[in-house]
Structures are given as C-alpha cells and as structure tokens.
Amino acid sequence: xxxxxxxxxxxxxxxxxxxxxxxxxxxxxxxxxxxxxxxxxxxxxxxxxxxxxxxxxxxxxxxxxxxxxxxxxxxxxxxxxxxxxxxxxxxxxxxxxxxxxxxxxxxxxxxxxxxxxxxxxxxxxxxxxxxxxxxxxxxxxxxxxxxxxxxxxxxxxxxxxxxxxxxxxxxxxxxxxxxxxxxxxxxxxxxxxxxxxxxxxxxxxxxxxxxxxxxxxxxxxxxxxxxxxxxxxxxxxxxxxxxxxxxxxxxxxxxxxxxxxxxxxxxxxxxxxxxxxxxxxxxxxxxxxxxxxxxxxxxxxxxxxxx
Length: 307
Ligand code: ADP
Description:
By secondary structure, the chain is of the alpha/beta class. Helices cover about 30% and strands about 20% of the residues. It is globular. Adenosine-5'-diphosphate binds near residues 67, 95 and 97.
C-alpha cells in the first residue's frame, strides 16, 4: 500500500469536477479515492451489525502529544472501530480534546504543538510528511463545542466547502441532501437565504454538522458538541449521531457521562498522572465501561467518586 501514492498525499491529483470524496474501501490507495458523490454513496457498504468485529479506521500507537515541552498525553494505544460512536471521557485537562485533535491534525495549527508516535488512518500514517493536512481535515471533519456557522446564509454555509473544493454537481441537491442528513432540512427549507447565525443553538449545531457532511467526510470528530445546548437540542444531536454512524465513524469528547453512556458504542476513559500528562486507563464497549469496568480508576470515575 505504501508503494502507491495515496490521494491524500497530493491534493493536485484530485478530480477538478468534484470534491475529492472518499470511498472507505479504497480511500487511501490512490486508485479509487476520487470519485463522484453518487458513486461513493452507491458503493458505501452497510454498517456491520454490532456483533461483528468492525475494522479499525484509526490505529494509534505510542502516541504522545506535546505543547512545546509540556506533554499533554502520553503513550496512547488505541484502535477506533469503523461505523461506531466512540466517546472519550475523563477529568478536565486530561487531554481528551488534545487527543481528538490528533485524529485530523488540528493540533498542527497550534504553535509548538507536536506529537510522537503514530496515528494510522486506514493504514496510512497521518503524520507522514507527504500527507496533505488540508485533505486530512476534509476526510476527517470536526464539529466544535460552540456552534460556529459562518456569517453567511444557511445555504452558503453548506455550499462553502464543496465550492472551495471545486464541486461542479448540482449544489442545490448537495445542500438539500446534507441538510436532510443532518436532520434540519424541514426546519430551514423555507429560509435557506437567511443567515445561519439567526438559528437557535441546536439548529446552528446541526447546520455545522450539515456543513461537515457536505464535503463527504469519512469520520466526524465532535468536541463537546452539546455543551452549549439545552436538553432537547442535545437529545436531537444524540439521535442524529446514531443515524449518522451508519455512514460515518464518530468520535466524541464529552464531559457529560450520561451522554457518553447513552450516546456511544465504545468508551475510552483517560485520566492524568502527577506530571499532568493524560493517559488511557481503559477502553471498551460503553455498557461494560459503565457497569463493569476492569480498572478501579474507571470505576471511581464513572461512579462519580473522582473527577
Ligand atoms: P481536556 O479536553 O481533557 O479538558 P485538553 O486536551 O483541553 O484536556 O488539555 C490537556 C492539557 O493540555 C491541559 O493541561 C491543557 O492546559 C493543555 N493545553 C490544551 N491546549 C493547549 C494549548 N493550546 N497550549 C498549551 N497547552 C494546552
């Protein structure tokens, strides 16, 4: 595989007629990665039944992340299964957001931030110097804590990414399908020209999810996406996450343990040592982590005795 030149290594190889969208089965081998939206949708396999052992989208090996000389996380070993929701929990400051940002090289944007170790994405080292970080962030999208629609119309918020990528298909159809997929179409279809910022917080967050979906990612990273939302809006996002996992792999950082318990398939528990470096204590199926954890630290945390 490494002998081929993966598409992500060279954005110039992409088809100018359409944004480079992924086919999960061939996303990184440079032969089938750049295909049109219709083809990728048709080719997308069904999500495996929960009982089957899913393939890994990410393999994290001996990962440490630093801000200059400060080590924020250390020696993380982790596989992230495809078409699952994986939640990251742990006390504030243990490195959950830092770890999440390692999955799409978002930390690269922070001066002094660097990593040691490996993050493999479909078998390719994301931190290989030949990998195009912009293409990485298109395939591995991110939804932030505070909804951050652009100061543009609802329509243009969704169309922005595909336009930048040179999408030449029907933009109206792409906007509509993305808004539908993010479960917000019915609420906005009659006011697409109105500013995205005029929507409620929960609607803005679903608009941001539509914006992420519009560039056809493979993975969606969510950093406390509900912390600014009321309980009803939170529930809508959680329901949406479950629908989206048919097509996407979702990683979510949450400080809300109830949310992790009800809205994820897998849970990763991190804590931090005396040096304040976060480390992975335990990972596993969410039900197991919350009802029958193997590690005392996990038990103390999920039962509310610590953190
Ligand atoms: P969590 O998401 O679990 O609350 P973070 O990943 O935000 O934890 O932070 C982990 C550690 O890294 C903390 O000690 C925090 O102060 C530090 N940190 C986070 N972001 C930065 C940054 N941009 N520059 C320097 N240190 C940072």
